[in-house]
Amino acid sequence: MKKLYTLFLLCTLSANVNAQVRKFSTAEIGRYKQQAKAVTIIRDNYGVPHIYGNTDASVVFGLMYTQCEDNFKGIERNYLYQLGRQAEADGEGKLFEDVQLQLIADSADAIKDYNQSSPYFKKLMDAFADGINYYLYKHPEVKPLVFTKFKPWYALMFTDGSVAATETGDISPRETQAFYTGDTYKTGATYPSQSLIKDTGEREIGSNGFAIAPSRSASGHAMLYINPHVPFYFRSEVGLNSKEGLHAYGAVTWGQFFVYQGFNQHCGWMHTSSYADVGDLYAEKVTQQNGKWFYEYDGKLKPVTTRQLKLNIKQGDTYATRNITAYYTHHGPVIAGKDGKWLALKHNNRSYKALLESWQITKASSMAEYKKAMGLLSNTSNNTVYADDKGNIAFWYGNFMPKRDTQFNWNLPVDGSTSATEWKGLHGVNEIVHVYNPATGYIQNCNSTPFTSSGVASPDKTKYPAYMAPDGENYRGINAINLLGNGKGITLDGLIAKGYDKYLAAFDDLLPALFASYNNAPDSLKAQLAEPIDILKAWDKRSSAASVATTLAVNWGALMFGAIPAAQPGEGSYQVKRTREMLQTLPANTPLQILGMAMQDLQRRFGSWKVQWGDINRYQRPADGVSFSDSEPSIPVGATSSLFGQLPSYQSRTMQTNKRYGYSGNSFIAAIDFGPKVKAKTIITGGQSFNVQSRHFTDQAEGYINGKFKDVLFYKEDVLKHVEKSYHP
Fold first, then answer.
1. pLDDT averages per 10-residue partition of the chain, 729 residues
2. Contact call for residues 453 and 481 (beta carbons, < 8 A)
């Protein structure tokens, strides 16, 4: 196949071609300064910014300014990704991630949405850009990688605060590269099928959301527990307050102006990642005539449309420009090829309604208003656990949910040549899998099946199409059900304690297989392994820093999970089912052999297999975020990855080190009691500041590790009692 891109190497351009001198007009500077006067920022004794303004737009201006103060690099990085411009900073290796993003989200559409938006919402987007640009104007020492001036429509390119929320149909950048360069795949030809489904093991470290009804709380109020599991330092903690009714608190993803996980004076919301099918691949039958591409649809040929993508690629001190002709059918962008057909992606990754929904949720004052915001049906990646001051608790599995003909297997690419596979509108809020005020008095979602979310009051699986909720059970879900199903008189601190429960439910299944393997082993092998087996038999299956059993179990369990076959298309998070099937088919001696391997690895790395978990599982926050060192100070951590069913997640690994260091898991965590006055406690990974010299760099680390939360200063009278700094941007 002829390659579909053209390369121009512009050798005379310096690497600063994109980092042009930032220029702000006199009018812009005057507008920025006027807005800054209307905003007051109060940093409390943990460095958390509380932003006050007369209007919602003025608060957005202040919010973006404080985000830049804390982590401008994180903001720019997120927009480099969302706009498909990472290669301008990082070079060729990011090129086809950029291609995917530019295929999926057209900036011209975002500009059109901005121009057609309501005057009120346009003011918010203008304030978003102005807040960032004012920071850049005031801080000439800050050197952006690419963006020297932000534009209001950028906000419409980043409308979902989830981690890697972009729906690609599980097509990798490598598969997109292969299609658009022709170096592996040949258009129109037959080539070996490749799996389009990623291993879902990493998804098992996802998030937890709990809602407690008044019948189960000590206060008689509804309660909410927010526990997203994401890369550390992925969001900032803020308080937002305007005279237009904005009074919200929570976690904001770097570069966004809505509260992604949090609460206001009336209600709270927790998002967990969803396995719901919200995007589909269409296998298009293509043919070429007179040098132009066509695809078959209902017995006729329709022309393939094209769009030119222009990408700049950093190459040392120069830039290359690569032009790629992108292909589209009416289903969406052609993102890869398979079995001689082009694969077009139908999706809803970027839309005006998605950003509007996120903002309206932030300001919702009741369950009716929250449902009305969700009625925009534009959130593609999230489940929602909800609670409010009227005692309501609720759960929605997903939000944007296309209606489909159930005779087709939507886990695989569907036939694009027939109108029978078209989406048939969207399911309404009350049609998607949901729970409203369950009789059991609790809701839990841990990225597992919604059909066990509220015990016997859970939704009936038979009433919903399979594409709505393909999830099975995971071990976190089992643990949450046991804790919440037996909970009564739950206090705020009691809810936090449940959220920090360190029981590793996976070993309820794994250890019996090991002990059976040991019982059937030769006496000589039994003698060698008697001590570690005795340690594991005496273990309560709770991780702790002082536990040798935790170290043995985690290292052995990780190897055991490696024996589980890869998930099948659409299998979702059937972790429990897949684990139990693996244990039934595994040779009887294998668990014991794997224990021997785990012990040998520990012996090799630490000189003994009898190592306490906290001695090798550590918390450290390097100044640059990546240079971990065994010779630098660190803190022991008793938690493990939630892969094993533990509710708090502390994902750790070696970082060119001997010891393991945390990098992902618990981030911003909150517990809220919705009484006449909201009471809440929170903790974040390490601290609010990204400045290693700041006392807020790690001032929350001990509380984060041990589940000792700080009180939220939700009301201004409380904020004023704990002022560290008060200023205008």
1. 38 42 88 98 98 98 98 97 97 96 96 98 98 98 97 96 83 95 49 32 69 98 96 96 98 97 98 90 97 97 97 94 97 96 96 97 98 96 96 97 96 96 98 98 95 97 92 93 96 98 98 97 94 98 98 97 79 81 94 96 96 98 96 97 94 96 96 98 97 97 98 98 98
2. no
Locate the DSSP E strands across 330-390: 332-338, 341-346, 382-388
Residues forming beta bridges with residue 230, ordered by sequence position? 665
Q: Show the CA angle centred on residue 207, arms to residues 627 and 392, nearest 5°.
A: 145
Q: CA torsion angle for 200, 205, 211, 212 (degrees, to 10)?
A: 130
**Contact by Cβ (8 Å): 121, 356:** yes
Task: Tell the residue number behind the tokens 């222009």, with chain if given.
Answer: 310
Which residue in this structure is represented by tokens 């898991």?
Answer: 665
In 3D, which of 550, 662, 694 has the Cα closest to residue 612? 550
Give the full edge-to-edge strand order of the sheet including 39-44: 434-436, 393-396, 382-388, 267-273, 261-264, 247-253, 235-242, 49-53, 39-44, 723-727
Measure the CA–CA gap between 466 and 452, rounded to whole angstroms.
16
CA dist 310 and 324 (Å) reads 7
Model pTM?
Answer: 0.94
> Taking a C-beta distance cutoff of 8 angstroms, is the pair 474, 509 a contact?
no
What number of residues does the chain have?
729
Which token pair is 219? 């206060």
* Alpha carbons 490 and 215: distance in angstroms, whole number: 10
Output phi, psi for 274, to 5 deg: -110, 145
> 558-573: buried (b, 16+ CB within 10 Å) or exposed (e) per residue?
ebbbeebeebeebbbb
